[in-house]
């Protein structure tokens, strides 16, 4: 018996159907399952898992993008931490990778932005990710920008978002992390509050570091979102050096306090010029930063001109970002010359796209928009064949 009223030996429905309906579609599934109406069989590696997502996506894409996200996470919260979490579990091969002094179960991670408050860490981890990066989180709760603030470019398989670091605050996130049992690497992505002046922005990062350090596998420093006014200025010159110096000093202080070393990775934009990229790389090396995440979303609309929503303000992600982010990784890798690892993200929606990021110089890769357009099968496909 895996759950009251669910007899796995008398399966009436295959796992793929249960998998997608509990994850995406049927809000009452956890309660229906208890009543013997549905008796899922918990097989793994079934090719049928790949069959149903297009139908579910079609239904979800009838909803406003943010409503679809909220609905999906409502279902995930219902299974997280319960035996029904098995419904979203995928068995993927172990392909360990060492990066930033940490051993990742496989090179594929979930990028920040999907689980901003760390509410569904275990359920997301059960899908096969080697790492899950939660956030971006800020010291204080904030609502983010006005809605609507996320738009699908379906033909391009891209998204434009101007969310604005909407989150429930770092204290809420820490409480959620304490409840999680994910056995992969947990990254926590931190940022500054919108109403904190950029000149005082480093204080917000230090506050978040203090609170998440004991619970993080690594900490991602987000200075590249285009949706917080002035944030990207922290990528340049003295502002960057001042921030990096401050977070490294804080890291040393917290290492002594907690008797553990938590790596720091800085997330950069894809819109940096060659000269700016060289300067960023030099600063990261000089300050002994542990890793770099390349890249965040882009303001460039050259590949989506004429498409519906293309002129909406915000950062563009998904397939239109794929080549741009890969080229940034390639240039960054050449400049760093192995002195610190790169986590590659931006438009990964296939095994080929993931391999291109690794070939360009990334040690690990992350997905976000590809996960929304292709669903959980993309995780298994990439991890299996990368």
UniProtKB/TrEMBL annotation:
The UniProt catalytic activity note for this protein reads: (S)-dihydroorotate + a quinone = orotate + a quinol
- Which Pfam family would be a valid example here? DHO_dh
The UniProt entry annotates the active site at 225
Gene3D superfamilies recorded for this chain? Answer: Aldolase class I
Instruction: Name one molecular function that GO assigns to this entry.
Output: dihydroorotate dehydrogenase (quinone) activity
Q: InterPro entries under this entry?
A: Aldolase_TIM, DHO_dehydrogenase, Dihydroorotate_DH_2, Dihydroorotate_DH_cat, Dihydroorotate_DH_CS
Taxonomic superkingdom:
Bacteria
A GO BP term here is: 'de novo' pyrimidine nucleobase biosynthetic process
In this chain, FMN is annotated as bound at 112-116, 136, 189, 222, 267, 295, 318, 347, 368-369
Which GO cellular component terms, listed alphabetically, does the Swiss-Prot or TrEMBL entry include?
Answer: cytoplasm; plasma membrane
Taking every annotated instance into account, which residue ranges of this chain make up the domain Dihydroorotate dehydrogenase catalytic? 97-385
For this protein, the Enzyme Commission number is 1.3.5.2
- CDD domains in the cross-refs: DHOD_2_like (cd04738)
Q: Which UniProt keywords apply?
A: Cell membrane, Flavoprotein, FMN, Membrane, Oxidoreductase, Pyrimidine biosynthesis, Transmembrane, Transmembrane helix
Q: Where in the cell is it found?
A: Cell membrane
Return the broad EC class.
Answer: oxidoreductase
Q: Where does substrate bind?
A: 116, 161-165, 222, 227, 296-297
Pathway membership, UniProt: Pyrimidine metabolism; UMP biosynthesis via de novo pathway; orotate from (S)-dihydroorotate (quinone route): step 1/1
State the annotated membrane topology for this chain: Peripheral membrane protein
Which cofactor is essential here?
FMN
Q: What sections of the protein cross the membrane?
A: 17-33
| Cofactor details (free text) | Binds 1 FMN per subunit.
- Give the record's family classification: Belongs to the dihydroorotate dehydrogenase family. Type 2 subfamily.
Q: Per its database record, what is this protein's job? A: Catalyzes the conversion of dihydroorotate to orotate with quinone as electron acceptor.
Can you state the subunit structure given in the record? Monomer.
Record-given protein name: Dihydroorotate dehydrogenase (quinone)
The organism is Yokenella regensburgei
